[in-house]
Hints:
The complex is a heterodimer of chains A (435) and B (488).
Chain A: H1 8-18, H2 48-60, E1 69-72, H3 83-89, H4 92-95, H5 107-124, E2 128-129, H6 136-151, E3 155-159, H7 164-174, E4 180-184, E5 186-187, E6 190-191, E7 204-209, H8 219-228, E8 232-237, E9 255-259, E10 275-279, E11 292-296, E12 302-306, H9 313-316, H10 329-342, H11 346-366, E13 380-384, H12 388-397, E14 400-403, E15 405-407, E16 410-414, H13 421-433
Parallel strand pairs in A: 1-14, 3-4, 3-7, 7-8, 8-9
Antiparallel strand pairs in A: 2-10, 5-6, 9-10, 11-12, 13-16, 15-16
Helix pairs in contact in A: 3-10, 5-10, 6-7, 11-13
Chain B: H1 56-67, H2 90-97, H3 112-129, E1 133-135, H4 141-158, E2 166-170, H5 176-183, E3 187-191, H6 201-207, E4 212-218, H7 230-239, E5 243-247, E6 267-269, E7 290-292, E8 304-307, E9 315-318, H8 335-371, E10 387-390, H9 392-398, H10 402-411, E11 418-419, E12 428-431, H11 439-458, H12 460-464, H13 477-483
Parallel strand pairs in B: 2-3, 2-4, 4-5, 5-6
Antiparallel strand pairs in B: 1-7, 6-7, 8-9, 10-12, 11-12
Amino acid sequence: MRYVPHTKExxxxxxxxxxLRNVDExxxxxxxxxxxxxxLQVEGGWDEEQLRAYFRKAASGxxxxxxxxxxxxxxxxxxxxxxxxxxxxxxxxxYTAYTPYQAEISQGTLQAMFEYQSLICELTGMEVANGSxxxxxxxxxxxxxxxxxxNGKRRVVVSECVHPDIIEVxxxxxxxxxxxxxxxxxxxxxxxxxxxxxxxxxxxxxxxNPNYYGFLESMNQASELIHKAGGLFVAAVDPLSLGILKSPxxxxxxxxxxxxxxxxxxxxxxxxxxxxxxxxxxxIRYMPGRMAGQTVDVDGRVGYVLTLQTREQHIRREKAxxxxxxxxxxxxxxxxxxxxxxxxxxxxxxxxxxxxxTYLAQKLASVGYPLWQRQYFFKEFPIKAHDAEAVQExxxxxxxxxxxxxxxxxxxxxxxxxxxxxxxxxxxxxxxGLR
Amino acid sequence: MxxxxxGTLPLLKELHKTGRxxxxxxxxxxxxxxxxxxxxxxxxxxEPLSMPELSEVEVVRHFVNLSNLNYGVDNGFYPLGSCxxxxxxxxxxxxxxxxxxxxxxxxxxxxxxxxxxLYTFQQDLLEITGMDAITLQPAAGAHGELTSLLMAxxxxxxxGLLEKDTVIIPDSAHGTNPASATMAGFKVxxxxxxxxxxxxxxxxxxxxxxxxxxxxxxxxxxxxxxxKNILDIAQLIHGVGGLMYCDGANLNGMLGWAxxxxxxxxxxxxxxxxxxxxxxxxxxxGSGPVAVKKALEPYLPKPVLVKAEDEDGSYHWDYDxxxxxxxVRSNFGNILVALxxxxxxxxxxxxxxxxxxxxxVLNANYMRVAMEDTLPTAYPGLCKHEYVATAExxxxxxxxxxxxxxxxxxxKGFHAPTMYFPLIVKExxxxxxxxxxxxxxxDAFVQAIREIVEEAxxxxxxxxxxxxDTPVRRLDEVKANKELKVRW
Lengths: 435, 488
């Protein structure tokens, strides 16, 4: 299959116009030693039907959320995606455009970005948000780098109850920067904040709520302690929980980040999703990433542009606030559409998720799978099992998926608004049968 | 498609009506208790949540009407240099969507068919680049740069070469190169371009020493020129124990004709959203796989996808990588983007990929020559997939700048080229037609440029005040920066 439109006659005419005899001469500036003297050994040249057959064969054997029942969590969830979200982000004017460098013909992207930023601010209670980053983990790393630019301190404290990917990515980014990472241990499923009291010269504290285990942390207390220690508070949150849970603004977070997948994005084998990033107006000039701002055109009409670009790499080069250029805008756009459709229903959504997960946790406890720790949770909780992997595998054989497995005797169970009482009762029955 | 609507739309917030709802929350079959009966008050939101409340049809209309204010590759010619705005085949979207409802934590044994696709994709990319090992993790080109430089850092540390603290970058490079080098903790030294638009080899020789860690080179470079001294450059850098990094943003300009791995590069990042036709999404998602030579393999981000050498040949994510730099993001990469790129590769095969490289270069050279008498190329002679024209003469004569020409192009139904980049060309317009454009489109664009330059002479105000026929006209960026209204 080919996507090049040239006819033989056109190729001949174009070569003539350039003053060349054949296409080989187009590459005469490449040293002979560097030229590939054969065709690439890449199988292909297929028509659309061959492509469909190839991919359908692979897809058909995989238990996706349409053929199996997912209670899977660990940062990615089988949430409901309204049909309208997929239709909007498939509009070619949105998905075949690039970065809105020519603002006059990119007002669709730019206004939507301004609205996305506003929606993230409303949801988190923060004052300013950027136009998205790659994912929750890299957004957390960018938050830490930003805080160090703000307060110049090089000691970062991270709870061991945050998603392991946050700690791992932060440690990777640390290879390039001179700073120290201290961790706060987990105690009974929550962050043990007691060590924080003795720390000085701390740049920031990174916490997650609900934490990796799904448990609700004492964000108020953490915020108070880190502020007393002179550092800033970086909170990673599940945006879908904020219909009912305390907003980061209410407990005094300085930077709020998170994984945006739960807002209208498919699980997509783990990516692409997007990371959101919000903070206080005071820190806007330290922020990484693109941002849309409102202004007017020469006729006085309201319009939107990319703003504060002097923070960015294409202008500031080695002094930029980050190297990021392409972000995950289309996924952020999906979340803006999602929040426009479901925003008013977020409290109801939060309530039903909480009720479902509470129901399932209680029932599972009654058939021999108690909570790993007795803590409050929102949609995800860890249970104890004799052999966690064996339970996971046995359920998979029936088309039911739980996990990820945390350790030999513990695994996570997540309940979204897509899981009905029927799904849960079947899971309970299956698990009871495994005892 | 663009319409004659003037101005932007009312904000979602202005459409709000308390009590209006969109799609129904899925029912559970349970009696829901109030939240306050399940969780203590200390966890619960007290501040009211102020989200716009709207019906589904209003939301759909709002975003469809917003999309009408946009311009994409599916609307028309989009010769945005350095971005490779080629056609995004629809079949790629269709087949990738079959994988969108898969959770990344499914047990490995249940996703062998997916892992086989990804492994095939990796093997194809290795053949295309001439490299030995690869990671799909990086989310974008710049993320691939950072990943690579962190690997370089780990490599030098491992070899006890702590003096390797400097990255050399040409003055024509993308801004992401120096920004990534800073994030990876290197000092940045700039090497200038010579009169041909290539790395100044003589100056480079004076800059290279024991501190040289990595030379980052875009090849073909951002002027669209193939760095013909590449083998000498590689020898020079390797001579002091440095590494050669290829910014693969411009791979389209030599696709199927030459490979980074055959010209001395030790690592390369690919932009799947450029060379391999995945949609740019209005600014992302991209995907920036990094392919490396054997010596750098141990440092790849983990996990690495491996195929078991036993007879069942199963696929695994290998986490047991003691020298790995670690993860650079969650999960395994932008897998859906990778699957779209795989569909593209499989639609073309080896011969088709080479044809892409050929036609991308033919289109660029055809336009370059055709434009020479109106907007000359800054660095004449053969180019690869793109070229940089300069409006300096037009500016001197008529006071019309590159930006004015770009804005007037919008009136004529084209997306503008990249403006004012690379920084070493005055009044730069960087033009990359890609292989998917017809000769008619190229001719029409050249004709539009000719008309604009003529207009600059006869009626400069029409160009200086362009655009006239777009949803909004020139926007006040100074006001946007000063008054900073970034939310409602």
